[in-house]
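input
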Amino acid sequence: MTRPRLEVAGVIRSCCDALLEQYGAGLTPEQRRALHDLTACRTAALGGHVLECPGCGHQEVSYNSCGDRHCPKCRATAAARWLEAQAADLLDTPYLALR
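output
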């Protein structure tokens, strides 16, 4: 799977100062926390751990995720599982899409 060119965290980081300057006074503590979590997700800011191959000794750093329910990185797996569970409940029959 290839990584997307842009990530939500990168977009937020690029305009966070301007966003807080313009709307910061009106943000709730929960909204501020979500902004912080999304920008810190899977970075050194949240810590991490080292994964090491027992065979060759190759090491990789794996940073911790934020776990915020608004984070697309953290919630993507849960959302995919939910979709699979819903698809399993569908009947094996054609469905009519109403618009």
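quick obs: The mean pLDDT is 90.
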